[in-house]
Amino acid sequence: MLRIWLDRGAKPEPRLLQMETLAAEKGVRVERVDRQKLDKMANDRVHNGVIAEVEDLPSYTTAILLDELFLADIDPFLVMIDEVSYEHNLGAVLRSGMGFGVNGVVVPTRRGAGLSPVVQRVSMGAAEVVPVIREGLYSALKPIKKAGVRVVGADMGGTPLGEIDLRGPLVILLGGEGEGLGPELRQRCDQVVSIPLASELESLNVSVAAAVLMYEKRRQDGWFTKK
Fold first, then answer.
1. Which residues lie below 8 Å from residue 98, measured CB to CB, with a gap of 6+?
2. Do 110 and 212 fall into the same domain?
3. b/e string for 8-45 if b means 16 or more Cβ within 10 A?
4. Among 150-154, 189-193, 201-205, whose mean pLDDT is lowest?
5. DSSP letters spanning 126-157
6. How confident is the model at residue 96 (pLDDT cuts 50, 70, 90)?
7. How far is CA 222 from CA 100, 167, 218, 226, in A?
8. Which residues pair with 154 in a beta bridge?
9. pLDDT at residue 118 in the model
10. N or C, where is the chain less crowded by C-beta within 10 Å?
11. Residue 29 shares a structural domain with residue 105
């Protein structure tokens, strides 16, 4: 982090005091300014009284990320989403991904949301931890298949969740909010899983579905077993 601007009129509260303390420890300059200046800097987007200037995030391709994970002896766990139209959904996926130890989220280069200010705000810091890779999904699948990482798609009509082994290196592939998983991408999956639902509900929001699948994968990995 390079610099922080805070609302001059904000009331003192523990989180702001903690932020200022950490900034002082790290040698980050903190400047208090009028709310109007923050509004202008944020182009009238929501900023909650805090704006920070940070260094650019590292840029990855799927192949580079996989190489780094294998060199570090880490089983890859990636999430791929085709055409996330709503920025809040991508932000929520990143936040869940951080919580469940996802190593990266792959979204298409030209379709859907990218790493926008809204995505970063909704992710609540997860965008700084979980790499977002913008790459054509078919291109991204080539190094994944070459590395022998299983691809499990999520779509209606798949094998019910809980009946598929999700342990080990894995890619979860989800479709867009409206169309779901397209037939061509479905053909490139090693298996297809569905989330059983009560009543007449056909599907979940893509970010909710992603979180359910992440949880089940980590449950099978033994993450939540008390030692």
1. 123, 125, 126, 129, 130
2. yes
3. eeeeeeeebeebbeebeeeebebeeeeeeebeeebeee
4. 201-205
5. GGGTS-EEE--HHHHHHHHHHTT-EEEEEEEE
6. very high
7. 12, 9, 6, 9
8. 174, 193
9. 79
10. C
11. no
Query: Quick one: tokens of 225?
Result: 């077993």
Class of residue 202 by CB neighbours under 10 A (exposed 0-12, middle 13-18, buried 19+): exposed
Q: Is residue 227 part of a domain?
A: no
Tens digit of each residue's pLDDT (9 = 90 or more) over 18-44: 989 999 999 999 999 999 999 888 887
Range of the structural domain that residue 38 is part of: 3-53
Q: Is 144 in the same domain as 214?
A: yes
- Cα 226 vs. chain centroid, distance in angstroms? 27
Let me know how long the chain is.
227
Which residues, other chains included, contact 55 with Cβ-Cβ below 8 Å and sequence gap of 6+?
1, 2
Six token digits for residue 204: 């979940």
